[in-house]
Structures are given as C-alpha cells and as structure tokens.
Specification:
The complex is a heterodimer of chains A (about 10) and B (about 210). Chain A is about 0% helix and about 0% strand. Chain A is largely without helices or strands and about 10 residues long. The radius of gyration of chain A is 7 Å and the shape is elongated. Chains A and B meet through loops of A and helix 1 and helix 3 of B.
Chain lengths: ~10, ~210
C-alpha cells in the first residue's frame, strides 16, 4: 500500500 | 479534494450540527449517548494534534477547528449544561471494551511508531466503533427519536462517501491509505443495519424508529 506521507484528510 | 470527500465532510458537519441543535433547542439530551460523544471528541483530539504542526489548506485547518469546537460543545451540553436530562442508566455501554482493543491495535498496526502516528491510528480505529454506545442505547431504549436517526444517517453517510473518495483517489492519484480504508469499511458496515431500518421506517414518515 502507498503509505500517505502526511494525513491530508479530516 | 474531490466531490466525494467534500460531500462526506459536509455530511459529517451536518450530522454534528443536527445533534447539537437538537440538544440545544430541546434543552435535553434524552436518548443521546454521552459516551459516544465523548469518544468522538477523543477521536478529533487525537486525530487533529497536527493542527499546529502541519498546514494542509485553509479548508483543512478551519474544518478541524470547527469539528473540535462542535464536538466539545456537544459534550459540554450533555455532561454540564443539561446533565440532569442525561440518561446515564441507559447509556451503559462499557467503553473500556472499545478502548482497550483500539489502543492495542494502534500499537500493533500503524505507519510509524511515533506518538503522532500512533495517536492518529488510534483515532481512526476508535472512530470505527465510537457509535457503538449510541446504537446500544437505542436498542436498549427500544426506540430513537426521528432527529437522532437523521443524525445517525448523515454520520454513517459521511464515511460511506469517504470510501467513494478513496476509490476515486486510488484511481486518479494512486493514493491508498490502508489503515483508514479498512477501518472506514468496518465503520460503514456497522451502519448498514441502521441504514436499512432508516430507509424502510423513517422515510415512511414514522416519528420514532424502533430497533429490533
């Protein structure tokens, strides 16, 4: 899985 | 940002406002699980710790502040302002049965073993089960006011729309947040039973919905 670099979702 | 995520955030905001207005205008929190609202305040607190360290966009920052403020305001109304209308006897779900597994799992499964990431993972897992005390309370009292069912409908719809958002982001930008997706699917599945009742009963115009 492509792990998100930062959480840009609420 | 895509239309699914925007619709999801709006649906989430609508749910929170529906509940807050219901409590404020009826000056009562009868039938509302304070425990679920405490858990949601904890979800926002542990998820939005990056409010001051990471700037994503004005929208992101504003919505985080709004969600934090409204969730704490709801908890305040339940446990302080209208505490004499709080039905603690029926709000008897043992939240430790939720917190212990969620804490354990967030230490097992996370993207990075750092305080921020473990707390973010904790908030994702906790959100999936935070509605349990409320659903449990409704099964215990045997009924839910119409407004409460609308609250639950928009709350369930928000994460269902986020699933559409994840599908969209996967196909358009290869984005895949495994922890959020798995947890979001579990969370939405918990609402399926309620969605069925909501559509079959509340839409028929009955004022109250009785869960089996």
């Amino acid at each position: 899985s492509v792990e998100p670099l930062r959480h840009d979702e609420l | 940002m895509n239309v699914f995520r925007l619709a999801g955030d709006v649906s989430h905001l609508v749910a929170i406002i529906i509940l807050l207005l219901k409590i404020w205008r009826s000056r009562s929190c009868a039938g509302i699980s304070g425990k679920s609202q405490l858990l949601f305040a904890l979800v926002f607190t542990t998820r939005y710790l990056d409010l001051f360290t990471v700037y994503i966009s004005a929208y992101n920052t504003i919505m985080k502040v709004v969600f934090l403020a409204l969730s704490y305001a709801t908890v305040y109304l339940i446990y302080m302002r209208f505490r004499n209308t709080y039905d603690s006897e029926n709000d008897s779900f043992r939240v430790e049965f939720l917190l212990v597994p969620v804490i354990g799992l967030s230490f097992l499964e996370h993207y990075a073993f750092t305080p921020m990431e473990v707390l973010w993972t904790f908030s994702i897992f906790l959100e999936a089960v935070a509605i349990m005390p409320q659903l449990f309370m409704i099964t215990k009292t045997g009924e839910a006011e119409s407004i409460t069912t609308h609250y639950l409908f928009f709350l369930g719809l928000y994460r269902a729309l986020y699933i559409a958002n994840w599908v969209w982001r996967y196909h358009t930008e290869g984005f895949f947040d495994q922890i959020a997706v798995v947890s979001g699917v579990v969370q939405t599945i918990f609402y399926c039973d309620f969605f069925y009742l909501y559509v079959t009963k509340v839409v028929q115009g009955r004022s109250k919905m009785s869960l089996p």
